[in-house]
Amino acid sequence: MPRSDFRTYFHNRASRFDAFYKSERVSRLIGRGPIFDRLRGAVDMVTGLGAKSVLDVGCGSGPLFEPLASKGIKVTGIDPAPAMVALARQRASAFPDLVVVEQRGWEEIKEIDSYDAAVALGVYDYVEDPRDLLTRMGKAAPAVIASFPAPGLRLQLRKVRYGAHGVGVHGYTQARLSDLASDCGLRLEKVSPLGQAGFLVQFARRD
Question: Which CATH number is 70's domain given?
Answer without folding.
Answer: 3.40.50.150
